[in-house]
Structure formats: structure tokens, C-alpha cells
Amino acid sequence: MTSQRTFRALGGVDEGSLPPAGEVAQVLREEFDRVLALKSSLRGEADAGVSPTGRHTTAQDEAKLRTLVASVEGASRLALKLRLLTPGQVRALWAEAMSNGLYDGWDGGQSAYDQAARAGEDG
Questions:
Q1: How many domains, the chain?
Q2: In which domain, by residue range, is 21 found?
Q3: Less packed terminus of the chain by CB within 10 Å, N or C?
Q4: Are 93 and 20 in contact (CB under 8 A)?
Q5: In a domain, 3, yes or no
Q6: Is residue 19 helix, strand or coil?
Q7: 15-32: pLDDT as tens digits
């Protein structure tokens, strides 16, 4: 069962204002699209065990996804800092990306805790 992720705010859930129009918002949307496309590619690599070039994949797809999401977070912060978008507009773009599956199949790093617990049991 997939849970819907949203931003938490005092008094409830804040999905931001309507997704904005304009060049800055379009650039962020393109970054989200790039992350979603790479996420799909990484999922295929993980399932196949090899990259499209034939190399065996050793990195976890979730670890790679974290770095991709971090780059979009940086772009979002830059847009906010330069006052190109409002916080509500950025939240709306993130909510839009999450509804498109940005975090689907991603445990948000919780698997690292599972591995640590297993290592403790083995030791």
C-alpha cells in the first residue's frame, strides 16, 4: 500500500498554492521530470542487475535517488532565496512531483535502520 506524502503544517496538511506558471516553475518541473525519468531507469537497472551500458550495478537505486532529490531541493532553495517563487508555489511543485510518484517505492532511508538492527543481531 502506497501512502500519499504531503507537507505537514500546524493545523493540518499544506499542499501549497496552485502550481505556478512561468519559466522558473517550468525549470523546476523539468528537474522533477528528470529525476522521475532517472528513477525509472534506476529501477530497471536494479531489477536487471546491470546498467544500460552492460556494467553491473553496485549502488542502491535509493541512494542515487536521494542525491537527485537533493539537487532539486537545492534548486528550490535557490528559487526561494532569489524570490523567484514563493514558499507556497514551491510546496505546490513538490506536492505535484510527489503525486507523480517522486517517493513511490522509496522508504526514506528507513532501510538503513533495518540493516543496523540486523548487524546488531549478528554481532
A1: 1
A2: 17-122
A3: N
A4: yes
A5: no
A6: coil
A7: 566 777 888 889 999 999
Question: H or E segment at 41?
Answer: helix 23-48
- How do 7-9 and 12-14 pair as beta strands? antiparallel
Instruction: Determine the Cα–Cα distance for residues 26 and 6; give it in Å rounded to an integer.
Output: 21
Output the nine-digit C-alpha cell for 107. Answer: 522508504
> What is the DSSP-derived secondary structure letter of residue 9?
E
Q: In a structure prediction context, what are the per-residue pLDDT tens digits for the chain, which is 123 residues long? A: 445 555 555 555 555 667 778 888 899 999 999 988 888 877 766 666 666 666 665 556 667 788 888 999 999 999 999 999 999 899 989 988 988 888 877 665 555 555 555 556 655
Q: Is residue 67 part of a domain?
A: yes
Per the domain annotation, does 1 fall within a domain? no
5: in domain: no
C-alpha cell at position 67:
542525491
